[in-house]
Amino acid sequence: MATVAVHSLTFTYPKRTRPVLDDLTVTFPSGKFSLLTGVSGGGKSTLLKLIAGLTPLPTAGNITFNDQPLAQIAPTQRAATVAMLFQEPSTQFTMDTVTNELRFALENQCVDPAEIPAKVHAALAFIGITDLQDRQLMQLSGGEQQKVALAIIVAMDSDVILLDEPFASIDPPTRLALLGKLMALCTERGKTIILADHDLSNYDQWVDHLAVLDAGKLTLLSPAETQARFAAFTPDKLKLTRVTLPTDQPVVMKGTQLALGHSDRQLVAPQDLTLFAHQATLITGPNGSGKSTLFRALVRLGKYQGLLTYDGNDIQKLPRKQYARSVGLMFQTASSQFLNVTVEEELALSRKFGNQDYFTPERVQGLLTQLNLADHTDQIIYSLSSGQQKKLQLLCMLMMAPAVLLLDEPLKGLDFASIQAVMHILTTAQHDLQLTLIMISHQLSGLDDLITLHLTLADHHLTYKGAQP
Amino acid sequence: MNPSLKLALVILIALEVSFTQVWTINVALIVVSLVLMLACHVKFKRLAWLTVVPLFFASALVWSLALQGTTTHHFLLVIFTRMFVYVYMGGLFTQTTDPLTLTRSLEQNAKLPSKFAYGFLAAFNLMPKIQAEVATIKAAALMRGQVLHVWSPQLYFKVILAAMNWSDQLAAAMTSHGFVEGAPRTHAVTVAIHPKDWWLFGISLILVQVGLFVGLP
C-alpha cells in the first residue's frame, strides 16, 4: 500500500521555455485506481516517468511514496515500490524469453533463487499466460507483450503501478481482460494504479473522478462530468453503419492461396483474398492474429505463401521503386516512417515526391493547423509527443497519396479531438483523391464516416462482414 | 564446457599462435575445431562460409607475400593456416555458446560487473533488430520516393538514431524491471565451473604448449 503525493511540481524539458508540468499538486490515494487523460503532448507520459523515477526530478522532495522520496528507498526495493508499463510494448524487455525476463526482474530484487520458479509461475498464472512462458519476447504480438509486462509487475509485487496508454495497440477483448486484472490487483492486493489513456471506453463502472491534465495543470472532474466524458465512448457510438458486404467493386489487390506465418505458428491459413479499389476497408481481429504481418506482406517487407497481385501483376515481379509508390504503408511505430530530423524537412520530402497538385502549400498549412502541428514545424521530430508524431506521420504518408495506403493503427495514442481531426482529413482526402485506404484499428470511435468495408481476421481466416445489427 | 573458461582458452591459444610459427600446430587446431563443430551439428552452410571467406583473404595475403619473393615457404604456410585457426576457433566458440549462458557465466564466474554482462547481451540481441530496421528504413524511403543505397549516409543516420533510441529504451526497461547499477543481485540460474572444465582447460593448454615446444625450429 502506498499513497503517491506530488507537491507543486514544475518540470521543463531542457532547451524549452514552456513548462510541461506547471506547479502541479495531486495525491493518488493508496489502493485506488486513478485514470488520467488529456490532449496528446499534454504531459501525461512526462508525469508518469517522473513518478516512476525514469526521468530525474528537479528537486527530490516533489514526489513521495508514503511521505518518502524515491531516492531514499533502497535500490533493490525501488521496483517493489513503483513499476511502469510502457506505451510501446516491444521496448520494455532486456532478455530473450518470457521466463528469462521474469527471472531477470526477480534477480534484480534479490529474490532467493529457490523461490523464483514459484513466483514466475504464479505471476504468469495470475495474468493467464502460462502458455507463453517459453516464447521469444520479440515474436509475441503487442497485446501479448503487454500481458507479459504486466505479469512482470505482478511478480515484482510493486505497490504503485503506472501505465502509460497500455492499451494503445490492444484489441477490445484483451483490453477488457487486462482491465479486469488491473482491478483485481487494486481491490484484492491493494495496489495503487495510475493509468493514462485517451480511449475512455469501459472505465465507467470503475472510475468516479477522471483526472484531466491540460497545459501543465491537473483537474479532477466531478462524477457527473466524468460520466459525460465517458458517454462519448459508449458502444452505440462505436458502430459502423455504412459498412456493406462487397459486391462488384473494382479489385485492386488479390491474394490467391495466400497464407501467413511460419510452420510452427500459422497466422492466416491458405485462402483467397480480394481488396477493393477506392474503398476504405477496416481490418479488425485479436492481437497477434497477423494483421500487421498481412500489411508487411502487402508491401513486400514480410514473407507470405501463395500469390499476391496488384492490378493483376504479381507484386514480386513489379519494380520495387514503382510498387512502393503505388502501395504505401503507414507503420504502426511512427518513428519508422521518418527519414529526416525536423518536421519541416520531413514535410519537404513528402512535398517533393508526393501529390503536389492536391497538397498545395496552402492546403498543407491548413492541415497542419487542423492537426495542431503548425507551431511545431521547426521542432525535431523525435522531441514531439507520440500523438504529435502519429499525426505528422499520417500527413506525410497522405501527401504521398499512393493508390493504396495501408494504415496500421493510425489513431494509436491520439486524443479525442485529434481523432476527429484525423478522421476528417482522411475522409476528405479519400473522397477527393479516390484513394484506397486499408486500415487496422482497435479504436473504433470516429471511424463511421469513413469505413465502407470491414474485414475481420479470426481463427486464421479473413472474412468480410456486413453492417452490425 | 564453461563459457568463460572456453572464451579464455580460445583467446590464450589465439595469442600464442600469433607469436609462434609452427604450422603443424595450426593444422592440428584447425582439425580439432572442425571436428568439434561437426560434432556439435553446426550447419553446413555456416561451415562453408567460415571456410570460403578466410580462404579468399588468406590466399590473397599469401599471393602478395609470395610475389614479394622475400618470404620463406614455411612462413607462407604459417600465415595461411593461422588465418584459418582464428576463424575456426572463433566459429567454434560462437557456434557452440549460448549468449545468455555466456552472460551469466561472465557475471558469476568471471565476476564481470553486471552492467557490462547485460550490456553485452543487449548488444547481441540488437543484431537481428538492426537488420530488420535497415529493411524497414529502405522501404519507408521508397514509399516516399527516395532510394537509399548501402552507401547512403541517410540510411546510417537513421540506423544510428534508432540504435540510440533503443539504448535509451533499454536503459528505461532495465530500470523499470528493477535493475540498479552496482546493486546486489541473485541468480535464478547458476553457472558452475566443474572440475571437468578446469581439466579440459588445463589439458588443452598443456597440449598446445607441448606441441609448440616440440614444433619450434
Description:
The complex is a heterodimer of chains A (469) and B (217). Chain A has 469 residues and is of the alpha/beta class. Helix content of chain A is 32%, strand content 24%. Chain A has a 6-stranded mixed beta sheet, sandwiched between helices. Chain A has a 6-stranded mixed beta sheet with strand order 16-17-18-13-19-20, sandwiched between helices. In chain A, helix 10 runs parallel beside helix 12 and helix 12 runs parallel beside helix 13. Chain A is globular. Chain B folds into 2 domains: 3-101 and 195-215, no CATH class; 114-176, no CATH class. In chain B, 77% of the residues lie in helices and 0% in strands. In chain B, helix 2 runs parallel beside helix 4 (73-96). Chain B is flat. Chains A and B meet through helix 2, helix 3, helix 9, helix 10 and helix 12 of A and helix 6 and helix 7 of B.
What percentage of residues of chain B falls in helices of 4 or more residues?
over 70%
The SS-based structural class of chain B is mainly alpha
Identify the CATH homologous superfamily of the largest domain in chain A.
P-loop containing nucleotide triphosphate hydrolases
How many domains make up the coordinates of chain B? 2
N-to-C span of chain B = 33 Å
Helix content, binned percent of chain A: 25-40%
Rg from Cα of chain A: 23 Å
